[in-house]
Amino acid sequence: MDHRGTQADKGVRRGFPQFEEETEFRSESWERAALGIEFGDDDGPAPWLSEEEHDETGPDWVFGRNPVREALDGTRSVLRLLVADGAGGLTTMIDEAREQGVPVQHVPRIHLDRLAQSMRHQGVAAMVAAFDYTTLTAILERAEAASEPAFLLFLDEIQDPQNLGSILRSAEACGVHGVVLPKHRSAGLTAAVARSSAGAIEHIPVARVGNLATTAAQLKEKGFWVVGTEASGETDYREVDYRVPIIVAIGGEDRGIGRALAGQCDWVVRLPMRGKVNSLNASVAASIVLYQVLASRTPVAVAAKKKRAATGAKAKKTKKAK
């Protein structure tokens, strides 16, 4: 069921002035606000938003053309689209938003600057419904529906939003069925994470659990294997057979995987390195291991065979049409 209309109405009630679509916001008060006269010259909240709309538990803001486009194509309801005056190349996006019943408003660019603060907005922003975490059960059902061994990613205390977003981007690209975060000492699914994920956050399920180690132990009873990553790991990451129900565990940069979760690992793998540095950024290490899982499950010979079959089927279809 589509709840866009209801949620959009709710978004208006949460503090937006009820202007007509495409309102230019050129009143004297708005111009004064743009110059910081009435609201000060600091980097405080954008003047047209209520306190509730700035509450971290309220709707999220997504900035940038690709993230906003992904939001429109994703599962979360888009409540409002803001477009900077003079921003070009957004006609298709605006048309799509209107088709979905999303209110579109043009605002002076300075308002987006104030709203985005340090983020690069590229002339467009979308207010979306707060991100809903899924459940572990839903992730497992998704894996089962895919008719392939489950592929989960556990992130232990990844606290930097940029790292979390980058990891989500790689996870979605590699076919991870779901990501699991701890409820505490972890970055949440914020606008900064969405921006860093380049829209991947809209397409990959994320669940939160109280204890990653306990959850891993429960899943091992269901046939899962756990692979942790550490610079001191005894096994080369390329030596593991990933063609089984697998959990890849990545730890934070400061302390790596916690002791309890490490105790649940069937393998603790290392990435061979020849340079002088002894570790990699968490998002880089995660990407390397995730792509190894993808590669082991889709060997080149199999991928080539599938491509040839698809090409042959297309050729037959074209010949038959002639």
Task: Note down, in words, how this protein is organized.
By secondary structure, the chain is of the alpha/beta class. It folds into two domains: 4-128, 60s Ribosomal Protein L30, Chain: A, CATH 3.30.1330.30; 136-301, Alpha/beta knot (3-Layer(aba) Sandwich), CATH 3.40.1280. Helix content is 38%, strand content 16%. The chain has twelve helices and eleven strands. It has helices spanning 4-13, 28-34, 65-73, 91-99, 109-116, 136-145, 161-173, 191-196, 212-220, 259-262, 282-297, 300-321, and strands spanning 60-63, 78-84, 104-107, 124-128, 151-156, 178-182, 206-209, 225-229, 235-236, 246-251, 267-270. The strands form two sheets. It has a seven-stranded parallel sheet, with helices on both faces. It has a four-stranded mixed sheet with strand order 1-4-2-3, sandwiched between helices. Helix 8 links the parallel strand 6 (178-182) and strand 7 (206-209). Helix 7 (161-173) runs parallel beside helix 11. It is globular, with a radius of gyration of 23 Å. The model is unreliable at 1-57 (pLDDT under 50).
